[in-house]
Amino acid sequence: MTITSPARVPAITRVPRVRTYAMTPPVHFTVQYAINPWMDPTTPVDTDRAIAQWLRLREVYEALGHTVHAVDPQPGLPDMVYAANGGLSVAGATIAARFAFPERGPEGDHYADWFSANGLGPVHRTDGIQEGEGDFLVVGDRILAGTGFRTHRDTHAEIAALTGRPVITLELVDPRFYHLDTALGVLDDDLIAYYPPAFSPHSQAVLAELFPTAVIATDADASALGLNFVSDGHHVVMTDAAPALADALRTAGFEPVCVELSELLKGGGGVKCCTLELRGTDEEVDVSSAAEPHVAHNYSPLPVTAATAEGAWITDVDGRRYLDCLGAYSAVNFGHRHPRIVAAALDQIGRVTLTSRAFRSTELEPFCAALATLCGKDMVLPMNTGAEAVESAIKVARKWGYDVKGVADGRAKVIVAGGNFHGRTISIVSFSDDPDARTGFGPYTPGFVQVPYGDADAIAAAIDDETVAVLLEPIQGEAGIIVPSDDYLPRVRALCTNHNVLMIADEIQSGLGRTGTTFACAHWGVEPDVYTLGKALGGGILPVSAVVADSDVLGVLHPGEHGSTFGGNPLAAAVGHTVVDMLADGSWQRRAADLGAHLHTRLGELVGNGVIAVRGLGLWAGIDLEPGVGTGKDVCLRLAERGVLAKDTHGSTLRLAPPLVITTEEIDWAVDQLAEAVRSSS
């Protein structure tokens, strides 16, 4: 009998998520009145010590990589230090507090003004009484809401309407725990810690059903406001006066970070009371500014910092392994650091890496010859990035239109598709309909006509004597892996042929084996006039791109009309040639087809169980999530916690593009983690 060892999967560990907080320094903090059982105006407060403890708390957050924004304190409002009560910021909805006691009433206006001044508007105000995150705690895609002492029960419905999230009412019955955040702490999107006697019997039953594995606090730790903590999913910043709770959190895989807030406890508040989390539309505000303060904030990355990678796996700086199901948007088709590609790069590095095109190199012609053969074309224009390849193809198409087709100078038109993604240069965003990519970057480049993707009739109607090209993605990637109907590309090919128009296929993501064929166009028996290639052409080592066409198209370029210092450099040519050689026998394409069939079979099992639909070909999939599951970013974060890396797009869609070296067992494990990730929201 043969015993097969199970596939090795990484141990599930707690993954921190970079957060953004608002805090108000306690420069005016005193206890002048009593509005909760903790407050005693006869007990003196050491304001200097309170400030020192607050500063230490802020330093702890910043040392963990989080961003802290300071809210200006106001004279006469000593409790402003408890910033969590100032409002609720979730999924782009910012709601300022409406306090129960007149002593704190003006704080609501100050927090509302601060939210607006710091770009968190529009700011909503509820009709009913509510005290922000003191009584509204976000747990994944839902909100736990406290009532009984401060926030009115009727206001829960207002919060649900404003945030679009389900709100679960919990009744507090012990006056010591007058806010929800004094009796319950959120550890991550699925787990809480709480003190059951603080709640009514019905609410205890609700919590036991929702969170059967919750961490339960002792009376001693709850009485020290041990549950008034702040967790980033791994680190739990908490009082140093709750040792049993700290031990329980360690057992659950969290790392307690203990601080002293004894002075602020005199006002009835702890760590969480002093900390208001700011969540933007992607659940974080300025995440990049916290983790990478010197990097332009043009990405919103997952909270994973890669240190090493090999094959289909990435290892982070803490030694945790992740199955890479994104593959750098197809740039790592052959896995991270494929030995054959690395060897080719190292060999070339030892000889010559860059000459510019002012001189010939031994590597360029062999690379271009091999790539032209793979594409069934005559010539190659080597460039660097995918966007450069698309820009170059547009230039070539216009020049071809003027020199060959006879279009009047300056009148050339290129037809493009709605929902396209070809890069983010000025000309490319000029024909994008993605507001994030386009808005704020005008004036735009003219000469483009956009029609709906998948509508060949619209292309037929748009073509005229000035049309020089139709530029399309055979399968739209950024749009959510949109696969057209079977007659679409053949009809586009026929229209281009009949009207003497170039068909340009952007195969930057879909090409070079990703979909189970060398090029996605081949699924429909279509050969374009021009290919634009990139991403996988660089083997995951460096940027390599190309425009590939016959000589009657690329031959319109003459010296000085187009170029690139790095385009076709010896190192890039050596790497690109290796990639082309690897694809020559078709084995990678067959592997992608076979594994892709298995991937889509497994993903299809999730339809109706948190997933609405699955699309794609080969090892490329777009997964539409049910609304109740949460956003695509939410699910990607849950997947990262389970050791799988994926990327969201357009709010509620996931994209998978794992390296072609992935195994059947690894696909099964990844889909199992996805099933758990969508199930965990219910």
Automatic annotation (TrEMBL):
Organism of this sequence: Gordonia mangrovi
Biological process, per Gene Ontology: L-proline biosynthetic process
InterPro entries, per the entry: Aminotrans_3, Aminotrans_3_PPA_site, Class-III_PLP-dep_AT, Orn_aminotrans, PyrdxlP-dep_Trfase, PyrdxlP-dep_Trfase_major, PyrdxlP-dep_Trfase_small
GO MF annotation: an example: pyridoxal phosphate binding
Native organism taxonomy: Bacteria, Bacillati, Actinomycetota, Actinomycetes, Mycobacteriales
Primary gene name: rocD
Name listed for the protein in its UniProt record: ornithine aminotransferase
Enzyme Commission number(s) from the entry: 2.6.1.13
Needed co-factor(s): pyridoxal 5'-phosphate
Entry superkingdom: Bacteria
Pathway per the UniProt entry: Amino-acid biosynthesis; L-proline biosynthesis; L-glutamate 5-semialdehyde from L-ornithine: step 1/1
Keywords linked to the UniProt accession: Amino-acid biosynthesis, Aminotransferase, Proline biosynthesis, Pyridoxal phosphate, Transferase
